[in-house]
Specification:
Layout: H1 11-21, H2 30-43, E1 47-51, H3 54-64, E2 72-76, H4 81-89, E3 93-97, H5 108-115, E4 123-126, H6 138-147, E5 151-155, E6 163-166, E7 169-172, E8 181-185, E9 198-202, H7 205-214, H8 243-253, H9 256-274, E10 281-283, E11 290-291, E12 297-301, H10 303-306, H11 310-319, H12 335-341, H13 347-355, E13 356-359, H14 367-381
Parallel strand pairs: 2-3, 2-4, 4-5, 5-8
Antiparallel strand pairs: 1-9, 6-7, 6-11, 8-9, 10-12, 12-13
Helix pairs in contact: 1-8, 2-8, 3-4, 3-7, 9-14
């Protein structure tokens, strides 16, 4: 069975974790700082703050910005639950932006539509998601956010290793050129894995310090105090990432270029292999500025036109050894948000969801695996 995503753990990764287990610190030790420093250098950011997972990274970003109850954050409807939930954790309201039906990304136009719903409330943050690994149009989104008194926080778990060219300048996702912060996840299906884990990057030293304090219960040690003394000016959380997992992260980070290159090569193979299945099946569109290290290989399939349900296709592919997944059910359709804000039809998000199916994509795949997936799709769809 080919899963839709899978970690790549090699002998040197195992050795790195074993070495950490023999060290003096299992958590909150020097390997955390080493991972943060290496990660910041890799993406070109001034600071990187490790935390327990990608959801914690988003929550910490909201806390660091001091987002308050009754204020507003804007998130795209097509994303994982955590992008919207992080605003709710701090009591803020969420306005869902529609997405381009062919890329799944928030666009300047869909953000402008969402901005029209803010009213007299204070807008604090706009959270574009680099869905699948393709980069959202950051300069235009940032300009709109700034115009309305808000900042951009990139939700970038899919996009470690992705790049984009804006105004003839090549940007790395996470470098902070257009945002206050960017958040990452190291869940096993992401580009690098620590089991669970997250990171926030920023170029703002003050935000970085708040992130570090808030991930450790809000504890601070005033200058000149006794060695046992600590104070808590405000409550924080236990969102620390252990040294053991940071050791794995450091080992994995050294392979990022290789993993990203393999993902790009597999994506190119998919594009060639699936091209004959158009127009009934098309790969999700790629914006001109985006050079992604794709986390997800999303096919947009005309299930209705083919006279098949998505479930029928998923089960038939599974019987042929091909695992799939759906990314994502629009968050505005979740019962909690319907109960909170009522029914909010977003046609772009609905059109994306109606057609999307994520195919296997991870560095351990062979060229022959891509051919197998393409052949299975051709048979199952009758094309």
């Amino acid at each position: 069975m080919l899963p839709y995503g899978r970690q790549t753990i090699e002998d040197d990764d195992i050795a790195a974790v074993a070495e950490a287990l023999r060290a003096d610190f299992l958590t909150t030790g020097p390997t955390v700082q080493a991972f943060e420093d290496a990660f910041a250098a890799k993406v070109g950011a001034g600071h990187a703050v490790a935390c327990s997972n990608g959801t914690a990274a988003l929550h910490l970003a909201m806390l660091a910005l001091d987002v308050k109850p009754g204020e507003v954050c804007i998130a795209p409807a097509v994303t994982f639950l955590a992008t919207a939930n992080c605003a709710r954790y701090v009591g803020a309201d969420v306005i869902f932006a529609d997405v381009d039906p062919d890329t799944g990304l928030m666009t300047p136009d869909t953000l402008a539509q969402a901005l029209g719903k803010v009213g007299d409330r204070r807008l604090r943050a706009v959270l574009p998601v680099h869905l699948r690994g393709d980069v959202a149009e950051l300069p235009a989104l940032a300009a709109l956010a700034t115009e309305h008194g808000a900042v951009l926080v990139e939700d970038a778990p899919h996009a470690l290793g992705s790049e984009a060219v804006f105004g003839n300048v090549r940007n790395q996702v996470g470098d902070g050129r257009h945002s206050a912060m960017a958040t990452f996840s190291f869940h096993p299906v992401k580009t690098i894995a620590t089991g669970e884990g997250g990171m926030v990057t920023t170029n703002d030293a003050g935000l970085a310090e708040r992130l570090r304090t808030l991930r450790t219960h809000g504890m601070v040690r005033p200058q000149g105090c006794e060695p046992w003394w600590y104070e808590m000016p405000e409550p924080g959380f236990n969102y620390r990432l252990p040294d053991i997992l940071c050791a794995l992260g450091l080992s994995q980070l050294k392979k990022l270029d290789r993993f990203a290159a393999r993902r790009r090569a597999l994506a190119a193979l998919y594009e060639a292999a699936l091209a004959p299945l158009a127009p009934s099946l098309r790969i999700a569109a790629r914006p001109d500025w985006s050079d992604p290290a794709l986390h997800l290989m999303v096919a947009l399939i005309d299930f209705k036109g083919l006279g098949k349900t998505r479930l029928e296709v998923v089960e038939a592919l599974k019987a042929r050894g091909v695992g799939t997944q759906v990314h994502y059910i629009p968050v505005n359709r979740q019962p909690y948000y319907v109960g909170l804000y009522g029914d909010q039809p977003l046609p772009g998000a609905d059109a994306w969801y109606a057609r999307c199916l994520s195919l296997p994509l991870y560095p351990g795949m062979t060229d022959e695996d891509v051919a197998l997936v393409a052949g299975a799709l051709k048979d199952v769809l009758g094309l």
